[in-house]
Please model this.
Amino acid sequence: MSEPQGPDPLDELRRVDPVDMDQLPSASLARMSARIQEKIVDTKDTGTGRRRFMLPAVAVVLAGIALIVVVAGTRPAPAHAPTPGTALASQPAATAGVALGSPISNVGSASCIEQYSPQALADRSFAFDGTVDRIDGDEVTFQVGRWFKGAARDTVTLTATGMTGTAITSAGGPNLSVGGRFLVAGEDHFAWPCGFTQPYDPAVATQWAQATGN
Amino acid sequence: MSSAPKSSEEPVRPDFADLYARHQRAILAYTSRRTASSADAEDAAAETFVTAWRRLASAPVEPLPWLYGIARRVLANQRRAGDRRMRLMDRIRSQPQDMPTPHAASAEAPAMMALRSLRTDDQEVLRLVAWEGLRHAEIAVVLGISVNAVGIRLHRARARFAKELGRLTLKGSGAERTSDQVKGRPFGRSRQVDKT
Model:
């Protein structure tokens, strides 16, 4: 079989590629990440035990992973996380013994998709110090005391899946509660776990201010 | 359940976090090209990564074609489960409705019409070459066929595509439309057919 001569007809097809990979909306990527979380939580089927899978131990790990997979990122980061239990293992079968609560530094290959660090924090589209005003499912409204980065509004409502007690208490983020004061960072309308959302701490707030130049 | 890692003692498996960071865009682009809405694309891409995580032990060292293969099966399952909505999506494939790319207007370009005129298998092998930029060996992984079979399928698909594209391009005012649509694209060349 000889290849056709002349211009490659597939060049015409390349020109009508309907998607530019570099132009994918960040909101789409964020929603995709959130759906990964939802699906893994669904698989675990936390409430009733109506499970198709016989993964008692691994399911626990899956649930933990679910709360970490939510964040989309690009940079492997050093092992520093202010919140417990961010175990995302590279080999599911080998992680059954990695309990939630294991610090990243003890897990070896485990990591968040993007781990918390001041620099990673500075790369987020928003970061603020706020108090939880209202929780509706996974939607959390904050009264913002101080913006480190992002739109300066008095209130903001974010999706904080896994951090509101609706599915499972987050392994990678805090359990948000009305009246609680938190440092919150993320992308689009998603609050990220894995240290990007954590209980307020003045020292960390100072760190965030320095990292974001605010 | 017998798919053990290929290398028993020292598998160089990708780390999931790294795999996700490196390939999330490619997989979302893949599913976006083959669904009609960004919601469906995101859902399929998410399902792909959930499946990939579960099967990470069998992931190859270079996981992207493997991920495409999973995504392909996810989309196939969606279609099988699916409904009239999916059939409608087939007709308007490659036209993501709320994916704000500059390419959405290309669905009626001759190349897209020529593509849609082909059999599904032929369409997919051409897309994998033209849009995902895969080589034969990678396409073989995605489609689960031999490299030789890829070569044969691609050769035939390309010939059918070229024939149909030529027919559409030569078809009356189609030539004018072709140049108009090409010129507005980021990669568009200057028009080859003058308006008269």
Summary: Chain A touches chain B through 49 residues (CB under 8 Å). The first strand of chain A starts at residue 126 and ends at 136. The CA atoms of residues 137 and 166 of chain A lie 6 Å apart.
